[in-house]
User: What shape does this take?
Amino acid sequence: MGRLLFKALVGGIAAFVGWMIIEPTNPGLVSQEAFAVFETRMILLVGVLLGTSLGALDGYFQGSRLHTLRGAGLGLLFGTIGMMLGHSLGAAISSAATGGVFDGISPLALLSRTIAIAPMGLFLGLGVGASTLTPKRIWQSGVGGLIGGAIGGLLFNVIGFIVGPTAVVLQNVPHG
Assistant: This one.
């Protein structure tokens, strides 16, 4: 397996683990404020996990323990900042372009979610690339993050549609 594919796999696993950790605390649509707090916690946790793991992996590939630790620390910092910036930008663009329709698996909902998450991937990738302190890697990571964010955004509702009914049954609630 090549390094690029391995990084994509590690990034996907880190994002999935972050989602699995935070999703049980989802308050649903009880109130906009409660959901906004939940969403911020989710974005922060996924940014921390992705930035740290991918930054550490870049450092590991450079060949020393110091590079691994520096990559993890800078990936944590820049990745989290990038994720928050990307979230703000993505939400604004998605709301303006599609009215922020996120529920369901309609083409508009999939487009809206993709538009919202792709900038998070872009800025997270730029942050992880910045952890290498190499301009060329910053842009390469940004492109990779944009592609990963777009794929994640496209699949987000589809995976939720598949996993959601199982979660409702396991939680023993009348609806999800």
